[in-house]
Amino acid sequence: MKKNELLKILDDELMDKLFGFCYGRTKDSHEAQELCSDIVFALVKTANGEGQVENPYPFIWRVARNVYADFSRKRRLKSDIQYEGNPEDILPFIVDERAVYMQDDDDELLEMVYRRIAFLTKAYREVMIMFYLDGLSISEIAVLQDTSEVNVRQRLFSARKKVRNEVETMTISNNKPVALDKIDYTIWGSGNPLSGDPRDVLKRQFSNHILWLCHKKPRSAAEIADELNVPSMYVEEELEILAKGANGVYGFLRRLENGKYAINFVLMDKNEIENAQAVYIEQIPKICGIISDFIERRKEDYLSFPYLNKKKDLNLILWQQIFCIANVFSIKTEKILKEKYFFEEKETNRPFTVFGHVYNGKRYGGGWDGVAANNLCGYSSVNFDNIYITRLKKHFGCGHDTANDMQLQLALRAIEGLEISSLSEEEKEYAAKAVDCGYLYREGEILYTKILVSNCKDNERLFKITDELKSGYFEKEAEEAAEKLSKLIHDALPDYLMGEWRFANDLAGLPLIDMTVEELINKGILIPPEDGIGAEGCWIRIQKSAD
Q1: What is the rounded CA–CA span in Å between residue 504 and residue 525?
Q2: For 31, how many CA atoms within 13 A lie in the half-sphere containing its CB?
Q3: What angle do CA 230, 235, 240 make, to 5 degrees?
Q4: According to the model, what pLDDT value does residue 209 have?
Q5: Which tens digits make up the pLDDT trace of 224-234?
Q6: pTM for the complete prediction?
């Protein structure tokens, strides 16, 4: 038989006999697998040579015995060095048995071995350190790790193999510190952030990259360490932080039963977010045409609302309503998505939820912040509200200290008119600032409140006219948008996050407010404030004790 035909007789029966030969000599299944692999490798090398083999089966067993003899020599040599307790001798030997006789490259080889051990996951890293550096026996390690000796041997076998393979393939670039490209996310929240906002722990580019790697495919700590060229110990620490979040319960990642980590919130990549937002953007001209006609027909109804201001300004009223006006279309679309496409999905219920996308160079959306106060400037209850978008700057946020905000207090005092002569010099300075930011305006020697003011008893009527857009409007446009979005959402979200489809729709609808505002400004329906700061988008609701 020619040598290159030798492998033809390596059938399953012969392989079982070879494994039995190996196991009978090692008494360990993992070492037997390693020895059997070495025998097969030796036979493969022989098969690639020239010449004849007269008796193939005796030849194969002769190769097996020679490989075993070499295997035994290496094992004895390793055991001797381990017994002496010198890790700087034994660790290079894991990679290359010749290292025991080599002196020149020992330091470099040892450094590479140490580095690759650092990249092992915790369970494998610990057994390598305990066995090779601390000099503990298999049985002692098993007790410390609360596992069986078989598991410890398996971990050592796997760890040695991984270290050996990776050191052999290590290149110069592997030794260089990792330089992470910048990844930014735009992440929104819904609910009460005081219950635990995972954004509080997302502080570093390292975290951003881990999220990105787990975005489409669950990853283990080892896989992430290899991908980012960062030791596993740091990856494991970061994974734990990202999984626990700020409250120890809700984080950006979830740990699966197989030990891997998967994304735990709605996160769209650049293509996904742009395709989703395009669904709403393409409808903007149509819905703004409908909105314009609606406002023109209901202009007098908006002006008839019982605001407490001396003057009623339709522009300010429309700015107050704009958030609700712009969101009607997405609310309509969401209703169709729920009833037609996601009716079987059990929606996620938690106090606070985050959702976001990879930053694509565009900033959409905004906010609506309110703050309440009691017994302020003669009113038993006061609510201050303001919206902020690209065209409007933020006046104040949730939790604002109204008790020390003299400008807002002057706005309350000036509802029925406030004589300038009644103010102290310090109050006059605050009044000038309140005029500049749009809270007040001056008529002669009297100051009046410019931002809209209404009575709390009229709260239910405040957005009643705008709410009429929710019925009988945008029907066809919402159906078209819902059909397209359902496909995009099903493609973008993993099955276990499908219960958070609403937040994907919220991300898709982010351009609505800004783009609706721009369209209405172009039509002459809205007039924006200069420099983004003014009475627009800011209002007060008051209640006296007698009301």
Answers
A1: 31
A2: 16
A3: 170
A4: 92
A5: 988 887 777 77
A6: 0.67
